[in-house]
Amino acid sequence: MNEQAGLVAIHQLSGVGWHTIDKLFQAGWSPGQELTPSIIDRLKSQKVPKQTVERIREKWTPQFVKEVAEELKHRRITAITAMDDRYPALLKEIAQPPWVLYIKGDPELLHTPALAMVGTRKPTPYGLRVTRTLTGQLTEAGWTVVSGMANGIDGESHRSVLKAGGKTVAVLGSGVDVIYPKNHRSLYAEIVEKGAVISETPPGTQPHPGLFPQRNRIISGLSYGTIVVEAAERSGSLITADFSMEQGREVFAVPGPVTSAQSLGTLRLIQQGAKCVVDAQDIFEELSHVLPVVREAAVSGLQTEPELTGREREILIHIQSEPIQIDILLEKVSGKMTVGEVHQTLLSLEIKQKIAQLPGAQYVRK
């Protein structure tokens, strides 16, 4: 029996969670061999519920292992175990790393340098704008963005990365085939097509409150650091930040108005020592040891974004999150483009939804 397939199959059994599998290994079990009476006896002595032990003994058979593998293949779900060379190295470092990861999409993204971006489900326009700016800068630099596909900052993080042609991973608090929230059906489909959706719970698992804190430890565990854009004082995003600190990873927080409830959590994080972020450069400074790998990814990413012309790239360098007047822009590209070429390029960038024109002949990156 294949060890990988055996571990995935036992993980599918109802009542078999992280601790039960841990106790199985402690009892001398190998997922490549059949269960012996002595292992069953040791499980019972380790206070594994009797009904769970009986379910394992009856259900976990070579035929069941084969059926599980065939079903996952049929549904185009990749299963990676903690014994697999393809398992993400950073995730192995956390406490209680998932025994199995289920993936829809590109498993290779789990080996790219990543940052987590999370926040409130009820963002302000400021929070959404900062999210778009930071994800644009991270994508341009070659980072993969990991988030939880929730409403608000999470969903906007995924959307902004995809729009910029970048790489994103969504970690679900449900089975990898269960879309939650349901209004993110189209976002889910796009992430599966262009990125990766992952979960540690077996396919078909419905979301419930207890699964989301577990999900958050994976979001931070896959990442070199966690960026919290907006969060209330008791936001679930702060749980992800706590996991990140416990895992020895960096925590970054975006400051906001002290009068905004959505910024109280991030301001508190900054008071507690999180790095204050006003620009992606603040993040890069703390992760300079990772930058060589990221730069290599960035070069590859730029080569796969053919929709922008040379003139469009030149103009876009000068248009960031702060509005810029057309006169200043013309000065910056003086000698490289004529006035007519600048206006034509600006129009093209607007059509491609890379920039927006504001009153007073000002432009801002979207």
From TrEMBL:
State the species of origin.
Lihuaxuella thermophila
Please give the InterPro entries that the UniProt record associates with this protein.
DprA (IPR003488), DprA_WH (IPR041614), DrpA_SLOG (IPR057666), WH-like_DNA-bd_sf (IPR036388)
NCBIfam families per record: dprA
Q: Which PANTHER family did the record assign?
A: PROTEIN SMF
Protein name, as recorded: DNA processing protein
Q: Out of the domains of life, which is the source?
A: Bacteria
From the record, give the transmembrane residue ranges.
none
Taxonomy of origin reads: Bacteria, Bacillati, Bacillota, Bacilli, Bacillales
DprA winged helix domain mapped to chain residues: 303-360
Q: Where is the Smf/DprA SLOG domain?
A: 80-287
